[in-house]
């Protein structure tokens, strides 16, 4: 399956940094470069399997490889896990470098911190320090995405999200009554997501992540 | 599963760390250098290279499970080192790669190592030195061709925060009881 379709249709981007990178990824098979791993994979060790020009992905904690994807020509492809199709990776394939026979490798997915948000001191946190970031929800597919829902991971540093920078909400699940909903997002279109982080009196912690969850309906 | 003891033997810049596990049968030892995963062995020892005056923390997690996830089960704490891992350049005249890091906003880039290009090798890796807590780092990898021309590839920078700021607190001394009482400020 080509990248930019189905589960890879919606990307969270920053106007300077581009697509937000949640993970550092180490490991690949010759001819394959792992470009991105869906947040749903979580940090851990996955497996990438290759047989000729067919590639398969098994997410950390999963026991089942996903459907094999034929990668006969150079390009980007989407490989999904066998148990949960929302645990996918986007890979760049250089077909002429794929080795003969069958190969399997471990892919280490490490959580990446500090890429976008600056650290704050205990003094700033105690002084009600607050900062708002603008992110883009970008539909990179060729289809309309509808019922785009956004919520945040509970226990993180995010204190509110908004679609208009006026009214902020803090939904912590997809079923939350305050879940942020965007109307239909046409192909190649973007919508703005405002994310607010505030120091609430506790010290900054390197283990705290600002995790943004999204769900949407598409073809 | 538990590591019962650690021991170390140093010869010049190479320190060999040996562990004793309470497991039996086929044991897989997963090694971490300053919190960064560096590999697995079925032997109970591993050699590490340390520069003169350098200190490092070694952690080892043992398991009988061949599918043990060394990332999920990594020791607590944010690693003090980074593993630079990159796919080869597709150019046909590559000679070597040079990895550089810059500490802070005012500092310049410093090379931490070079790796010779091999035509039949797909990926390369290099472990960084110990990074200083509380500093922002930038990284880049140079691809140098046989004529000495360099093409730079910047990587995502980051701030190293391994020990978060301590909570604000107050301390009061009672000379009647000789007690010091700590309280949130």
* Main structural class of chain B: mainly beta
Mean pLDDT of chain B: 89
Distance between the termini of chain B: 41 Å
* Topology, number of strands of chain B: 14
Shape of chain B: extended
Helix content of chain B: under 10%
Distance between the termini of chain A: 14 Å
Shape of chain A: globular
Largest sheet of chain A: 5 strands, antiparallel
Measured as a percent range, the helix fraction of chain A is: under 10%
- What count of helical segments of chain B does DSSP give? 0
Query: Regions of chain A with pLDDT < 50 over 5+ consecutive residues?
Result: 201-206
Strand proportion of chain A: 35-45%
Number of E-state strands of chain A: 16
Q: How many distinct helices of chain A?
A: 1
Strand percentage of chain B lies at over 45%
| Structural class by sheet pairing and helices of chain A | mainly beta
- Calculate Rg of chain A over CA atoms: 19 Å
Order of helices and strands of chain A: EEEEEEEEEEHEEEEEE
Largest sheet of chain B: 4 strands, antiparallel
* Lateral arrangement of strands in the main beta sheet of chain A: 2-1-11-15-13
């Amino acid at each position: 399956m080509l990248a930019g379709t189905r589960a890879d249709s919606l990307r969270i981007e920053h106007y300077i940094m581009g697509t937000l990178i949640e993970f550092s990824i180490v490991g690949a098979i010759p001819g394959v470069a792992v470009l991105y791993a869906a947040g749903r994979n979580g940090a851990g060790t996955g497996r990438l399997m290759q047989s000729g020009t067919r590639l398969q992905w098994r997410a950390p904690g999963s026991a089942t490889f996903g459907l094999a994807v034929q990668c006969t020509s150079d390009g980007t492809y989407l490989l999904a896990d066998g148990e949960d199709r929302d645990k996918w990776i986007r890979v760049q394939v250089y077909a002429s470098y794929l080795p003969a026979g069958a190969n399997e490798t471990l892919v280490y997915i490490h959580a990446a911190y500090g890429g976008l948000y600056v650290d704050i001191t205990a003094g700033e946190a105690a002084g009600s320090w607050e900062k708002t970031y603008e992110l883009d929800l970008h539909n990179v597919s060729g289809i309309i995405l509808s019922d785009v829902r956004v919520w945040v991971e509970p226990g993180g540093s995010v204190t509110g999200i908004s679609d208009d920078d006026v009214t902020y909400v803090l939904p912590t699940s997809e079923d939350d009554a305050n879940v942020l909903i965007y109307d239909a997002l046409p192909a190649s279109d973007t919508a703005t997501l405002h994310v607010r982080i505030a120091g609430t009196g506790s010290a900054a912690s390197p283990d705290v992540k600002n995790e943004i969850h999204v769900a949407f309906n598409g073809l | 599963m538990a590591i019962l003891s650690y021991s170390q033997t140093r010869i010049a810049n190479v320190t060999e760390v040996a562990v004793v596990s309470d497991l039996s049968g086929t044991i897989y030892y997963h090694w971490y250098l300053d919190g960064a995963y560096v590999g697995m062995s079925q032997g109970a020892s591993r050699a590490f290279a340390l520069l003169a005056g350098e200190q490092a923390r070694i952690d080892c997690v043992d398991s009988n499970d061949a599918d043990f996830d060394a990332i999920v089960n990594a020791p607590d704490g944010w690693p003090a080192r980074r593993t630079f891992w990159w796919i080869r350049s597709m150019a046909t005249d590559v000679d070597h790669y040079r990895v550089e890091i810059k500490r802070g906003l005012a500092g310049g880039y410093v090379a931490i190592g070079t790796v010779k290009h091999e035509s039949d090798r797909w990926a390369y890796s290099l472990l960084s030195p110990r990074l200083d807590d509380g500093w922002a780092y930038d990284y880049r990898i140079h691809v140098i061709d046989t004529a000495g021309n360099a093409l730079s590839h910047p990587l995502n920078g980051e701030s190293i925060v391994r020990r978060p700021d301590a909570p604000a607190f107050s301390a009061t001394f009672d000379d009647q009881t000789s007690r010091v009482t700590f309280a949130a400020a």
